[in-house]
Specification:
Layout: H1 8-15, E1 27-28, E2 31-32, H2 38-48, E3 49-52, H3 64-74, H4 79-92, H5 108-120, E4 126-130, H6 138-154, E5 158-162, E6 177-179, E7 182-185
Parallel strand pairs: 3-4, 4-5
Antiparallel strand pairs: 1-2, 6-7
Helix pairs in contact: 3-4, 3-5, 5-6
Bound molecules: adenosine-5'-triphosphate (ATP) and magnesium ion.
Adenosine-5'-triphosphate binds next to α1.
């Protein structure tokens, strides 16, 4: 948590290897990001990280099923395993009946549930979520938080959540505050 401009998104971007660091080192599991080559970073992003954005970032021309399937395709998962996993995830986020719908035909809460399923499709070690409830009404936001909590537990995936809403910390084991680019309490 932290005020606008305190560096929360920048931190997530550094942790996901999108933003190069100017100083210091970043280690996530066995990966030393600050010394990784571009191809190592690409592998790290594909295999270890799931990202969830405030504005969903689904591909508009793909159905819910196809959006969720994509990270599996990128790591070369066999078709049968992919299909089974997407169906399990659609069920877990309550969207089996929306499998063939495109993002345009879904509500914000439904889109974010597709984005959550997509983020865990490849069983990453960490989910990075940048204000995942920021575009949702409070009831949909609550449902998203419950899903993030239960799925991260079920699949043993660490969750790093950026939020403006102090109520969202109910699903967190630890709250870290940032200010002016620094962690001020942890
Ligand atoms: N690519 C960039 N180049 C230079 N400065 C940047 C860049 N991206 C962000 N900044 C600056 O870095 C600081 C932190 O921005 P960041 O987007 O990480 O904040 P934030 O905590 O996520 O804010 P918000 O709550 O508004 O999303 C801000 O002062 C911002 O203007
Ligand atoms: Mg931000």
């Amino acid at each position: 948590m932290g005020p606008s401009g305190s560096g929360k998104s920048t931190l997530l971007n550094c942790l996901s290897g999108i933003e190069p660091v100017d100083a210091g080192t970043i280690r996530v599991g066995s990966y030393a990001l600050s010394h990784a080559s571009e191809s190592e970073l690409e592998r790290y992003r594909r295999e270890c990280i799931g990202y969830i954005f405030q504005s969903f970032h689904l591909l508009p021309t793909l159905s819910a099923f196809e959006n969720i399937e994509l990270p599996g395709q990128l790591i070369g998962m066999p078709t049968a395993e992919r299909t089974e996993r997407v169906q399990t995830l659609l069920d877990a986020v309550g969207l089996t009946h929306r499998a063939d719908h495109k993002p345009d035909a879904m509500s914000g809460g439904e889109r974010q549930r597709v984005a959550i399923a997509r983020a865990i499709m490849h069983r990453p070690q960490v989910i990075l979520a940048d204000e995942p409830t920021g575009s949702l009404d409070s009831a949909s936001g609550d449902r998203i938080l419950d899903l993030l909590e239960s799925l991260s537990r079920q699949y043993s995936i660490a969750l790093l959540l950026v939020t403006h809403e102090s109520s969202a910390t109910r699903i967190c084991e630890r709250v870290v505050h940032m200010k002016d680019g620094c962690i001020v309490s942890a």
